[in-house]
Amino acid sequence: MFGRVRSWSRGHEKLASALRVAPLAALCGLFAVPYASYTPPGAGLMLGVAGYLALSAALLAPLLWLARPVPSYALIALISFGQWLAGLDPLPANLAVLVALWVVAYRCSFRWGLAAMLVAELGILLALVNWESPSFGTFFGGSVFVVTIWLFGLYAGTRHRYLEGLEERAERAERERDQQARMAASAERARIARELHDVVAHNVSVMVVQADGAGYALDRDPEQARQAVRAISKTGRAALAEMRRLVGVLRDDEHPDTDYTPQPGLDQLEELVRGSGVPARLVVAGAPGELPEGQQLAVYRIVQEALTNALKHGGPGARALVELDFDGPELVVRVTDDGRGGAAPRGDGGHGLIGMRERVGMYGGAVTAGPRPGGGYEVLARLPMARAA
User: Fold this and answer.
1) pTM for the whole thing?
2) How far apart are CA 296 and CA 171, in angstroms?
3) Which of 126, 164, 271, 366 has a Cα at 20 to 30 A from 156?
4) Are 259 and 199 in contact (CB under 8 A)?
């Protein structure tokens, strides 16, 4: 609530200033009628109601421009000093000095706040000079009141600057986190692009050379042509297996002996769900048809990453539900669990969501992940339905 009030005050500064001055202005208005019948002691100067209202307005008006606290406070102090020189008694509007003192201590540096406090102390001393029987006790009581207001302003200003520092550090940490995530995604894409370039360039070059040799030897030496065609087939299969490995795996493979093993697809999803380590159920709506192997692998990895997150962060007793919908124009993959959701501890250094977004982005889709309103966690991916060539 206080945050919303502060935001509104920043957007409507003049109106907020007027609302802050309104209680003191109302207090001055209440004293206008008794002032008409007031007789100052001794030879004091009598203003009358019109002069009282005019002087009160002059003292209160600078409070509307407290965005510049030092000039506002200086103007109020000068008006009060002129009032003392004219021999006028203090008015309720002179409390504007204390309001401006608090704002100077709150918004300005310690030196400005200390100077404002000393000026207010001087004002108390000058006011007591005109009294018939000034005493040290009266001066001490007024000084304690002024110093208390000054200290409250210093404390509020210090706390405000501390909270602003915390917000700034939080925003900087968030920007750095987003930057690290973008750098991780860019590094991953660059690594895959370099490896794919090397693999494709080398193997295609070999295939072109073998194909040219087969074309020259086709009539003169059919056996040599057949050997060249076999070499083309072998090189193409090796290149295809290598490309599957690079496109399908964003991290280094932990098992080098499986480099040429076909990557998993939709047929292995049920086995993945059963062996995920978290109680899970697979629900499929519609028929998948003949999806490209790369898109099947993307679905498999998304489900795998989501189930891994449920196992790591869902907590004991968490259960998961994997839903695939092939009926619409988009392939929808939804993995939900009933675990701790937003209350789960945050892990450091993970790039699972980044990897999922990279996979889905290759096919023009989108993925979202986050705690569910009713508890638990949800990963939702949508991919355009592609068909195998």
Assistant:
1) 0.44
2) 38
3) 126
4) no
